């Protein structure tokens, strides 16, 4: 019996150690890939695929919003985009940037095929993403009152984003 308890304790300890190592590695990778926001980005007017104006300062006023850089060619985005869509369905303000994913019609076709309805700014040449120094897709920035308060790169989940949004709303 004592041997079984000892084995359970060691397994739990190993799980905790490996979990903490994973979290620390994830934080280090996010720090390394940290985007840098362009000057006066919050006041810029962007136009989505439907030619509707989008201003980050307005979208992030009083509540955090997601700025989501993705690509139709990105394998990790195929797992992250449904979480972003679910947050959009939950009434979270979302603005996305389709990085080098084709012309506006190709991006619209991809969105229809995948049943995504979040607003998309097309970045066919990568100029917008370059101005943010985006190094990986997906990259998600959480912006509140026109200021970047959190960011993450790579694979993420609905609940991971939900917790980040909640923490951002506390500030």
TrEMBL record:
Residue ranges constituting the Thioredoxin domain according to the UniProt record: 22-171
Top-level enzyme category: oxidoreductase
Transmembrane segments: 15-32
GO MF annotations, alphabetized: peroxidase activity
Keyword Transmembrane helix: yes
EC number: 1.11.1.15
Keywords assigned: Membrane, Oxidoreductase, Peroxidase, Transmembrane, Transmembrane helix
Protein name (Swiss-Prot/TrEMBL): Antioxidant, AhpC/TSA family
CDD domains: TlpA_like_ScsD_MtbDsbE (cd03011)
Domain of life: Bacteria
């Amino acid at each position: 019996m004592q041997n079984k308890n000892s084995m359970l304790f060691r397994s739990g300890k190993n799980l905790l150690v490996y979990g903490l190592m994973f979290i620390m590695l994830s934080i280090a990778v996010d720090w390394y890939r940290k985007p840098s926001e362009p000057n006066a980005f919050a006041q810029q007017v962007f136009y989505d695929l439907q030619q509707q104006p989008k201003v980050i300062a307005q979208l992030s006023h009083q509540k955090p919003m997601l700025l989501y850089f993705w690509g139709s060619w990105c394998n990790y985005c195929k797992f992250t985009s449904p979480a972003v869509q679910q947050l959009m369905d939950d009434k979270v303000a979302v603005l996305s940037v389709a990085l080098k994913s084709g012309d506006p019609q190709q991006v619209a076709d991809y969105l229809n095929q995948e049943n995504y309805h979040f607003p998309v700014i097309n970045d066919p040449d990568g100029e917008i993403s370059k101005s943010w120094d985006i190094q990986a897709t997906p990259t998600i920035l959480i912006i509140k009152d026109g200021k970047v308060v959190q960011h993450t790169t790579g694979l993420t989940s609905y609940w991971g984003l939900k917790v980040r949004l909640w923490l951002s709303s506390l500030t």
